[in-house]
């Protein structure tokens, strides 16, 4: 044991008595100003004495904790019962923090049978917490441990979630500064518990690939909160002590490399008591029953000492580029954070894009490399940094962001273990930025990443992204037309079009300040609307008919409000037998999505105009209830989203909390309006036409009469049907059309849209006639927008009624609207048909 202690002391200085309570900061736990990587072990359950006390031998506890501390552990988990205060005192003396269990799972039977009301259970939990509340050795409270999947299925997940939330409120009343978690496991991973400070899971997977993949999935569940592995381990009785050594080595290293805040090895000793008897048919312990060390103890100690990464790894050189324009207010904090990075091989390049404030003086004071240019915009500044970079990886961070000390470590780890061209990480708002910035952080429209899977991204935001320098150079860097925003989206699409992939590292986090005034938030969202218009002109096929980007992945943190949220579907398996039970949330139907889009304000404006005509023709006043309903839905969605949002600074006063919720609701209402303003000002309107000015679609002579068509094309060279369609699709996109592929259940192959109100569909069939000769048949037909048809019909009927009532002015206005809509729909359909015909004609020999 002395050998282990000496080696651990060399790699990791032992900490003294615990005095500072931990707090959560983003994906990690902090003790004071230092990151607390939890290096823990579970302790118990043990045979109780005659008075029912489990931890009743202080001498043994003292020796065990001393041995843990000597081996490099800094935390111990008491799984199933609240320990006595004396145990916490002993832990504090040895520098150990304690995760205590409140065993909420044992009271659920009372809840089911109605023997105790939930309020009584909450009072019981509160009395349990009282003796230890505020103790410096507390790491966190675990509300419960592995509520059985069958019980959750019986009660329903929402009732269990509500139950745990009520208990968390009871604990917070006794210990407001205490951290809370619930120890979950794969069989009930679908429980949604956003009120917890930490996300904890017990995971026993015995292959490195599956373990690493599941950790990535758990990080997606955890979001911006720390992820703790509350139990990992292997039974040495069944697998042997040598296999236990091997498994625990890669398990411990994997949890830290993946970005977890730490973990607990199960267990400290083979001594274990459950179900009223000693358990002697397993041996998960790091020590035997007599506390003699197993070989696994030394392995775990060494792995913990090297966490989160080995010091002597071959780290690649990284160039960090900070692009700034009048960023003096936050630049010093950003550069200070870069100076504190724990990475052995990096440089910092500050690119000043024509600032007029003290940016240059602050940058030069830092001693970092400084490049000053005239103001040419963000995309150009990023290219300037790329040209000056000497690293094989180029990382970008905004001047109003501050990196976590291990930011580059996690980015580099992703590059070293994958072939990704680029890697991004989360950007989290600091919790102490003030009430307005805190509300802005919870409002929509912030910089978010789009995930295709738990580890692959479709888009990574520009405030926290890194790329292989050779990949950036291969695509020509950033497009300088994007002067404020949109450059990151454009680059990600270009890299993916080259066949490269983008990765996501959940622990490569930066602290990113949000706008601290409503005016600044409005301007930011308006600029984002401008960037969307620029992107739509360059990438028309990535935008739908309404003018919104169609992501193939899921937007991180983007949840529909409760008003529109579809029912949750949980994969339980037959009779609830699945070991991994996941949550699947269906996307809202397309007709509901418009309620969350900026264009909903145009719908409201149209209803206002129609209602105003009611002054000339009273029947139109009947649209007033519809107008009220449209506005009410908008306000209700904003209110629901705001009330369901957990604000980062947890205001203690109910009045302050209500004020912040009202402000958040106002931001939910302003954000789409600001985006709409920017989109309309720069040409991204619902009535726009696709294609670049002067391109194929713009020069095409429109026809007002769309027609069905078909053609047959002979080919003497055999080609796979999918290859033909891909070539047709590429030709349509080159013409500027918005092209969507048919799904598994569609009787069409491609949907082609050049306008908002109409489109066309293409179907292909290939016949092999022998000797490599193929006959390909193409058939197309127009498709009118159902919404356009409905609105046209309604306005036409109203115009006819107005004529009948001799309200000729109103009839003329309504009829003109109906006619214009019908003509525009015909033109859109005809142009879609025409571009199909032109593209197919090129296929003819």
Terminal Cα span = 82 Å
Number of distinct beta strands: 33
Q: What's the helical proportion of residues? A: 40-55%
The overall average pLDDT, rounded, is: 87
SS-based structural class? alpha/beta
Q: How are strands sequenced across the largest beta sheet?
A: 16-15-14-17-23-19-24-22-21-26
Percent strand equals 15-25%
Low-confidence runs: 4-14, 692-701
User: What is the tally of helical segments?
Assistant: 27
Q: Give the biggest beta sheet.
A: 10 strands, mixed
Over all CA atoms, what is the radius of gyration? 31 Å
How would you describe the overall organization of this protein?
- By secondary structure, the chain is α/β, with parallel strands linked by helices.
- It is built from 27 helices and 33 strands.
- It has a ten-stranded mixed β-sheet, sandwiched between helices. An eight-stranded parallel β-barrel has the order 4-5-6-7-8-9-10-11, surrounded by four helices. Strands 29-33-32-31-30 form a five-stranded antiparallel β-sheet.
- α3 links the parallel β5 and β6 (97-101).
- α5 (118-129) packs parallel to α7 (157-174), α12 runs parallel beside α13 (359-366) and α21 packs antiparallel against α22.
- It is globular, with a radius of gyration of 31 Å.
- Mean pLDDT is 87; it is low at 4-14 and 692-701.
